[in-house]
């Protein structure tokens, strides 16, 4: 806020000398943080960062200006992405890979990355798959310009059946592909457990023993996670898996998120999650997602638990991120909570909450110009800016 | 029969209508008052009232007096219930996956009232009050589809038990689609079936003509014989006598009129195909690639009365002009697809609905043939977000499907005489932030 005032004082209506990397966006509405919407807003960007967001202020005639009749928001964040990474995010022979860096699979020129950009997604979390008990380090990358925001955003753990007793042969995985749909009648949940191999661990108890052993050794990412310097993301789909994840996090003092958990809105789970330092990354939601599953966004948000949507691209379309959000809205989640899940909470759960997710002074200048409210699927992306530069449509279009 | 069954499911969560009515109970009449009443896409009244009686829209107007004791449902925007033109909601899954269907196989025979009632209720609560349901998803010939209402009442809910004949060419079956020769062959087999249906109808027409000619000829001959009865009798007696004298066997004279034309053997499959060829019911073909669309359009051009409808139609944009000229509607499934999509959707793009509509093609939006009818409004909104006009997108899930499946006088709009399927939103129906506040199906409030 003080920065915004400072900017106001500095600009003072006087034309300034043109500067490199400076841009003004004047828009009918700018969404900043905490659900604040500024009518007739002016966004000032300098050197890839937001310098100020102000209301009703006249743009500086000496600086480049983009006028937009719609809404400007922070860029969306795509969690649990495999964009351009092919099958590189999972190891078939080993179960524990704390030092595996997903960033090595990042190909900035891959068309998957461009597709995410066109959908209004400005940052992707490339994350190890759910097939390894310790999958390695997720990174957060920009969808334009190839910049890696952090190569060690979070440590990926998995307590799902997908990590148990895997075959050591080559496999192909898709985020959420084997994820159980929440059963409305309270019937047993069953995530995919086939084909069974004999790679250890082969049971939940074995997986937890292995994790405890790894954390007890206290080296590298394990030690950092225990100290609270590194977030964890624990894959957990069925309710019993979520409860094990919460218990493990409590025991080891881990913070971060549970990923999957279609029934995270179950009262027992909400209570457990509330007492933990874990948020929930839900989805990606499918067309046939059941109501109890869709309602979990509403329930979690109401309980004050951070919640975000997984993208699961490229198997799922980047366009599906807003559709997941619209499905949650249809199931009664408040618009503010859903928007937070797409941006602010997504950044937080990806471990980059300090730099991404909101349009506030000092944050990275990743933003989207929408024709209208982005929660209305009728609105379209007019332009996407990454690091303060127009990234989509490409310059010259 | 089954239709009756289908609706006799208990609906314990529904609030009693009477309990909420003011004054005298009048469950047969409902008034709906809305700030915006969308009679049909592009035509609306402000601050208007809709009166439903015995399940049907009876009056619409801005200053309608509301009769005593009628339940009033109020809201910001009201429109007709959505019609999903591409669904298998409420059908037994084995029948939906049955690739062995023939032309006469009927989708209504696969209706299963006890199958995931939650799915049907979700559809209803998402505003889908009716749907074209089809068995044999992906089969070359998928049989006869039905137009049904999704309501849970205990009266017959079938709008049309023979809404269309359906089929598909070049789609993935068991994970993959055939090569280009297989796919071209599928078009030929489908067209071959239509030709067979056409010949069947022609043989029936021929038979009727021959029968007519024969009946006439017999009558003439009889009259002739009657007239010359004495002479004929004498001639016959002489012939009989001659034969006896010569020791031969006597045979009655044969007349060519004795041979009655034979009725062609009834074949239910050929009959169904013939009905499609005659344009009695539309033929919905799921087809995606340009090569198959081209071949299908070329090879069906000679069927003058055939009412072809394309479904899927991923690469149809190149044929927009011909689709307009031949008045061939398309049913699209504008859902976002990632890399894990069926082969035939390789060129899938959400902008197709808007692009085809701009070219003048009649576009319908469906939920892709599965049980996900509850997605319909979101899909229409996505189509708008990718360039379709909002009124065209609303038509694509209301009036257009009703028209294509011959139910324009029953569904899809809120004009007098139409079924009382009304949705009340707190915002624009296609705004995905808007909430559906009330669903009225067949004149009965099913939600809240």
User: Which strand order does the major sheet of chain B show?
Assistant: 5-6-7-8-9-10-11-12
Helix content of chain A: 10-25%
Strand fraction band of chain B?
15-25%
Largest sheet of chain A: 8 strands, mixed
Report mean pLDDT of chain A, rounded to a whole number.
88
Largest sheet of chain B: 8 strands, mixed
Name given to the CATH homologous superfamily of the largest domain in chain A? Metal-dependent hydrolases
Can you tell me the overall shape of chain A? globular
Q: What would your notes on this structure say?
A:
The complex is a heterodimer of chains A (397) and B (448). Chain A has helices at residues 2-11, 111-118, 204-217, 220-227, 239-252, 267-274, 291-294, 296-302, 320-330, 335-342, 344-349; strands at residues 22-31, 37-46, 49-55, 65-74, 76-81, 121-126, 134-142, 148-158, 231-236, 256-260, 278-282, 307-309, 367-370, 381-386, 389-392. With 397 residues, chain A is of the alpha/beta class. In chain A, strand 1 and strand 2 form a beta hairpin. In chain A, helix 9 packs antiparallel against helix 10. In chain A, 55% of the residues are buried. Mean pLDDT of chain A is 88; it is low at 1-13. In chain B, helix 5 (180-227) packs across helix 7 (268-277) and helix 5 (180-227) runs parallel beside helix 8. Chain B starts with a helix and ends with a strand. In chain B, the strands form two sheets. Chain B has an eight-stranded mixed beta sheet with strand order 5-6-7-8-9-10-11-12. In chain B, strands 3-2-1-4-13-14-15 form a seven-stranded mixed beta sheet, with no helix packed on it. Chain B has helices spanning 2-6, 17-20, 93-96, 117-125, 180-227, 229-245, 268-277, 290-300, 320-325, 352-358, 376-385, 390-396, 399-404; strands at 29-40, 43-53, 56-61, 71-80, 82-87, 128-133, 141-149, 158-168, 283-287, 308-312, 330-332, 363-365, 422-425, 436-441, 444-447. Chain B has 448 residues and is an alpha/beta fold. Classes of the chains: A alpha/beta (397), B alpha/beta (448). Chain A binds chain B through residues 112, 174, 177, 184, 287-288, 290-291, 312-320, 323, 326-327, 329-330, 335, 373, 375-380, and chain B through 118, 122, 126, 335-340, 350, 367-368, 370-372, 374-375, 378, 381-382, 384-387, 390, 430-433.
């Amino acid at each position: 806020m003080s920065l915004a005032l400072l900017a106001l004082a500095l600009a003072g209506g006087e034309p300034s000398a043109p500067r490199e990397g400076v841009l003004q966006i004047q828009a009918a509405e700018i969404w900043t943080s905490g659900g604040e919407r500024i009518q007739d807003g002016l966004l000032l960007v300098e050197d890839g960062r937001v310098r100020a967001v102000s209301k009703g202020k006249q743009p500086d005639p000496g600086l480049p200006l983009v006028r937009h009749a719609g809404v400007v928001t922070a860029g969306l964040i795509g969690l649990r992405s495999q964009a351009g990474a092919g099958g590189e995010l999972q190891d078939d022979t080993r179960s524990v890979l704390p030092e595996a860096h997903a960033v090595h699979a990042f190909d900035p020129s891959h068309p998957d990355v461009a597709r995410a950009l066109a959908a209004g997604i400005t940052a992707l979390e490339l994350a190890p798959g759910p097939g390894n008990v310790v999958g390695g380090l997720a990174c957060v990358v920009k969808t334009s310009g190839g910049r890696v925001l952090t190569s060690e955003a979070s440590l990926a753990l998995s307590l799902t059946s997908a990590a148990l007793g895997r075959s050591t042969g080559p496999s192909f995985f898709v985020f959420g592909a084997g994820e159980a749909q929440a059963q409305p009648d309270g019937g047993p949940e069953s995530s995919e457990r086939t084909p069974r191999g004999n790679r250890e661990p082969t049971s939940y108890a074995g997986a937890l023993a292995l994790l405890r052993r790894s954390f007890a050794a206290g080296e590298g990412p394990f030690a950092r996670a225990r100290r609270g310097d590194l977030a964890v993301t624990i894959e957990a789909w069925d309710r019993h898996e979520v409860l094990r994840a919460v218990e493990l996090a409590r025991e080891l003092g881990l913070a971060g998120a549970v990923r999957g958990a279609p029934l995270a809105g179950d009262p027992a789970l909400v209570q457990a999650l509330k007492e933990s330092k874990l948020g929930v990354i839900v989805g990606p939601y499918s067309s046939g997602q059941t109501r109890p599953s869709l309602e979990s966004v509403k329930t979690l948000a109401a309980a004050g638990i951070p919640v975000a949507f997984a993208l699961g691209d490229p198997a799922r379309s980047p366009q599906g991120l807003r559709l997941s959000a619209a499905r949650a809205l249809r199931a009664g989640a408040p618009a503010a909570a859903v928007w937070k899940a797409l941006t602010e909470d997504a950044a937080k759960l990806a471990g980059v909450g300090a730099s991404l997710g909101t349009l506030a002074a000092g944050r990275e200048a990743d933003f989207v110009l929408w024709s209208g409210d982005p929660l209305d699927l009728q609105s379209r992306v007019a332009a996407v800016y990454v690091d303060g530069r127009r990234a989509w449509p490409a310059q010259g279009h | 029969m089954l239709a009756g069954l289908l609706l006799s499911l208990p609906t314990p969560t529904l609030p009693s209508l009477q309990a909420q009515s003011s004054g005298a109970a009048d469950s047969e009449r409902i008034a709906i008052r809305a700030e915006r009443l969308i009679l049909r896409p592009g035509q609306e009244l402000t601050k208007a009232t809709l009166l439903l009686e015995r399940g049907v829209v009876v009056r619409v107007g801005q200053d309608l007096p509301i009769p005593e004791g009628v339940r009033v449902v109020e809201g910001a925007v009201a429109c007709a219930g959505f019609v999903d033109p591409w669904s298998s909601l409420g059908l037994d899954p084995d029948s939906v996956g049955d690739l062995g269907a023939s032309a006469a196989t009927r989708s209504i025979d696969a209706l299963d009232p006890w199958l995931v009632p939650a799915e049907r209720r979700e559809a209803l609560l998402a505003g889908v009050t009716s749907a074209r349901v089809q068995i044999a998803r992906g089969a070359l010939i998928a049989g006869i589809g039905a137009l049904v209402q999704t309501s849970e009442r205990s009266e017959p809910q079938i709008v049309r038990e023979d809404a269309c004949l359906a089929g598909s060419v070049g789609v993935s079956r068991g994970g993959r689609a055939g090569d280009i020769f297989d796919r071209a062959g599928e078009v030929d087999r489908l067209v071959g079936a239509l030709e067979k249906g056409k010949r069947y109808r022609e043989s029936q027409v021929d038979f009727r003509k021959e029968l007519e000619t024969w009946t006439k000829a017999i009558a003439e001959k009889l009259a002739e014989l009657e007239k010359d009865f004495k002479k004929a009798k004498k001639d016959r007696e002489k012939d009989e006598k001659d034969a006896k004298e010569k020791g031969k066997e006597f045979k009655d004279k044969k007349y060519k009129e004795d041979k009655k034309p034979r009725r062609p053997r009834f074949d239910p499959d050929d009959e169904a195909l013939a009905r499609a060829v005659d344009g009695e019911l539309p033929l919905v073909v799921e087809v995606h690639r340009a090569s198959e669309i081209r071949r299908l359009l070329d090879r069906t051009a000679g069927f003058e009365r055939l009412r072809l409808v394309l479904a899927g139609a991923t690469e149809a944009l190149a044929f927009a002009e011909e689709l307009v000229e031949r008045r061939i509607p398309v049913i699209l499934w504008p859902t976002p697809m990632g890399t894990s999509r069926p082969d035939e959707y390789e060129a899938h793009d959400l902008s197709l609905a808007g692009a085809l509509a701009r070219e003048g093609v009649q576009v319908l939006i469906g939920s892709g043939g599965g049980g996900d009818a509850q997605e319909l409004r979101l899909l229409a909104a996505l189509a708008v977000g990718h360039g379709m006009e909002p009124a065209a997108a609303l038509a694509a899930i209301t009036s257009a499907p009703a028209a294509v499946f011959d139910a324009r006088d029953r569904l899809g709009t809120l004009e007098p005489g139409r079924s009382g399927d009304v949705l009340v939103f707190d915002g624009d129906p296609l705004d995905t932030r808007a909430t559906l506040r009330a669903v009225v199906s067949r004149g009965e409030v099913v939600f809240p």
